[in-house]
Amino acid sequence: MICRGCFSDALESVIDLGHQPLSNAYLTEQQLNEPEVTYPLHPYICTQCWLMQIDQYETPDNIFEDYAYFSSESQHWLNHCQQYVEQITQRFNIKNVLEVASNDGYMLQYFQQKGIDVQGIDPAANVAQVAIDKGIPTSIDFFGSDTNLGKYDLIIGNNVFAHVPDLYSFCDGLSISLANKGVVTLEFPYLAYLIKDRQFDTIYHEHFSYFSLRAVTTALMKHGLEVFDVEHLSTHGGSLRVYIGHEGAHTHSNRVAQLLAAEKAGGFYDLKLYRTFKEEVQRYKRVFLKRLSDFKDREYAKIYGGAAFNPKSVSIVAYGAPAKGNTLLNYCGVSTEYFDYCVDTTAYKQGKYLPGSHIPVYHPDRLMQTRPDLIYIQPWNWAKEITEKLSYAQEWDAKFLIRTRYV
Ligand code: TYD
Questions:
Q1: What φ, ψ does residue 233 adopt, rounded to 5°?
Q2: Would the pTM count as exceeding 0.85?
Q3: Phi/psi of residue 285, each to 5°?
Q4: Which of 250, 254, 327, 376 could form a disulfide with 401 if both were Cys (CB 3.0 to 4.6 A apart)?
């Protein structure tokens, strides 16, 4: 394996999360009777540029053929995007915008409302079609060196950088499609939060790379691009937004040098940190399994006084069927012995089964109908929004369990 950021072969194992199916490969009932394909899920760290990465087992074509993620599902995410549009149009003079991985047009719609020319590009045809139907021009394709959609004042890449198998071509495409004084902003989950908060569940096959700022600057350098500003964001468990321009085109904020220094001081360029992460994740699995079984047993004893086996023991369900939930459940080997079912607002996922664990996915209305005792909120990045939405579960005194860095 060669580092996709700097092409060095100095890669060290971080943690083996076992063989897992693709996190977005939700199964139909029919597919439950067929073999399920799994691949090693095993992140490595490059000791040259400190890019954490997994090997590419699945082609992007297959991943995006029938993509299950619709960005407009979350109102909080839409609010985040709307704020971004206000901020970026005030800071820079923008006449046209290209969004890479424009999904269902969730972001470009706000630029369009301001009379700015927009163009999207996204390889997932079913999702891109939703944008096209809304009147947002979208090219159904991968972005890279071959992209020929003109030059742009602003290129946006939100939560796409991690999904790019060919980083070289992607960065080349940014350089080719960016106007001389133009700006690229990329948002991606930040490696520092992943490690510090043990967000191992954000590791899955569709995420090929996990970026430190140093890894980003190294990958861009080869294409005459540089990071001139950086911001921390709370989205997706902690992200970075980097501002990129052609070399020398923009004044540098000292935040870039400060963050690189903080990475060094924080041990991110030292293998020790990744070894400790591995031990913590392994411990997490043991604690999570104990918590789940304790809950079932303790509550069982409380309700039935430790009486003889009663199949109507405490019911636990999962709220949300995010990709990250699948990494966690499959790494921990958890299935319907704990979770009766899962609910999700995404119509595409309803009526299907979670990959690996085969937990059935339903419409959230099912919560009302079955009144579960414990609701385990899988998309911890949306926990606030979801617990607010689920306030009606107080009616039957349901408890919530939200993932923390420990359980
Ligand atoms: P998300 O955490 O955004 O992404 P990933 O798949 O990359 O881990 O996934 C959130 C999932 O939760 C998605 O399937 C939609 C679902 N969801 C709900 O069902 N209800 C909600 O209120 C929200 C915010 C999300």
A1: -130, 155
A2: yes
A3: -60, -45
A4: 376
Give, using CA atoms, the residue closest to atom 20 of ligand 1.
Answer: 345
pLDDT for 320:
97
Q: How much is the average pLDDT of 332-355?
A: 96
CA dist., res. 378 & res. 195, Å (int): 19
CB neighbours (10 Å) of residue 114?
A: 12
Nearest CA to ligand 1 atom 22: 386
Q: pLDDT of 182-229, one tens digit each? A: 999 999 999 999 999 999 999 999 899 999 999 999 999 999 999 999
Closest protein CA for atom 1 of ligand 1: 322
What's the pLDDT tens digit per position in 106-130? 999 999 999 999 999 999 999 999 9
- Rounded CA-CA distance 200/167 in Å is 22
Q: Token pair for residue 101?
A: 């991985």
Report the atom number in ligand 1 closest to the C-alpha of 386. 22
Q: Is 320 in the pocket of ligand 1 (CB under 6 A)?
A: yes
Does any ligand 1 atom lie closer than 6 A to the CB of residue 386? yes
Q: Which amino acid is at 79?
A: N
Which residue's alpha carbon is at the smallest distance from atom 17 of ligand 1? 320
**DSSP-assigned beta bridge partners for residue 316:** 339, 374
| d(C-alpha 65, C-alpha 217), whole Å | 31
| Average pLDDT along the chain | 92
Q: How far is Cα 39 from Cα 296, in angstroms, rounded to an integer?
A: 31
17 half-sphere exposure, CB direction, 13 A CA radius: 32
**By the 8 A CB rule, do 212 and 262 touch?**
no
CA 161 to CA 189: how far, in whole Å? Answer: 9
